[in-house]
Structure formats: C-alpha cells, structure tokens
Amino acid sequence: MNERAKVYLVDDEPAVRNSLALMLGSFGFNVETFDSGRALLSVVGPESDGCVVADVCMPEMTGIELHHKMQERGLDLPVIYITGQGDVPMTIEAFKTGAVDFIEKPVDDAQLCLSLEQAFERQVAERTERRARGTVSARASRLTGRELEVMDLIVTGFSNSQIAERLKISQRTVEHYRAAVMEKMGAGGLPDLVRMSIRIGRSNL
Question: Quick check: is 204 in a domain?
Fold first, then answer.
C-alpha cells in the first residue's frame, strides 16, 4: 500500500464518517472527510490524487450522482461506493459508472483496505498509460501526411514493395519514408512501432 495515500471519505452520517476515518487512518491512509458530494467537489480538481469512498444514499447528491459530476469535470479519481441499502439495480448502476467496488455496510475493514489498494494501483496504471499515449501522440504529430500513410501500411503488414505499389512511389522512396517514421517515432523496431500505433488508435490490428 502507498503509505499516506489520500482517501476522500464522503458520508452524511457523522458516526460512519468518523469510524471509517479512524480505521483508515490506523492503516496508514491520509483521510479527509466530507459530509456531502458538494463539499468534496469544492476542494478537488483535475490534478488531485487519491481515491473517493462515497456513500451511495445521501441527501442532495447521491454517491452515483457525485461520480457523474466528477466525470463531467474531468476528475479521474477512482471511486468506491459504500451503502446500507444495496440492491441489484443500484449495484449495476454503480459499476456502470466505473466504480472500483461496491461495499455494503457495516463495512468490512479488510475488504475496504483491499479495494483501496486496488484502486490506487489502477490509478497509477491508467495515468502511466495516459502519459505514454500522450508521448506517442506528440511524436506522431511530427509526421507528415505521407509518413503517416506509410506508418499505417507498415504496421498493417505491408512490405516495402507493396507500399510502393499502393502509393505509386518507388521502393527507395518508401525506404526513405520508413526510416523517417522510425526515427521520428523513436521506434526500436517493427514490434515497437506496432505497439505505438495501437496505443494511439491508428492500427487496425
């Protein structure tokens, strides 16, 4: 577990809020509590790190409505729902929003801590992937239109001669474009270029 990882705990019941905050704090989490979704939204932003643990059934704004608001504002914090009134439709709706877990009250300490660890791992993986995708996209933006055409054909499996025939250019010109693509993309080889193309959604593989 990431020591002192941030947890935003949202529950309108003071007793539940305080109890969970005490428990999570004892496990090394850095807990900030809120009595409503509106209160949470007033302090978090796109650069905020952490995980939200929110009660589903709250007045004014439910936990699911809170999650929708977060998504509208570009807040990619993972969310774990807790509830004392869980049912199948509610559970389905919760997971449709992208929730990490849906835990019924009384909350099992071990289950919540495990879910938090999974949430933080997922957050790190997703942010790492976004950064990598951004890097590849920036490199691809340096390619000319013709170089992009050649790259798309390369990763689809076309040989130099097939590309030359398709684009009605010489094989020597294809080799020139191919070398330029590999250099600008920073690709160590064909497998690397294919991975990059898939990452930014250009490959049909």
Answer: no
Tell me the angle at which helices 160-167 and 145-156 cross, rounded to the nearest 10 degrees: 130
Q: Is 128 within a domain?
A: yes
pLDDT tens digits, residue range 139-194?
999 999 999 999 999 999 999 999 999 999 999 999 999 999 999 999 999 999 99
27-38 pLDDT tens trace: 999 999 999 999
The 3 state secondary structure assigned to 59-97 is CCCCHHHHHHHHHHCCCCCCEEEEECCCCHHHHHHHHHC
Shared domain for 149 and 102, answered yes or no, is no
Q: Where is 5: in which H helix or E strand?
A: none
Domain count, the chain: 2
Give the chain's end-to-end CA distance (angstroms, integer): 37
CB atoms within 10 A of CB 22: 10
pTM: 0.71
106, 132, 158 - which closes a domain: 132
Q: Which domain holds residue 159?
A: 142-199
> Whole-angstrom Cα distance, residue 179 to residue 68?
46
- Specify the length of the chain in residues: 205
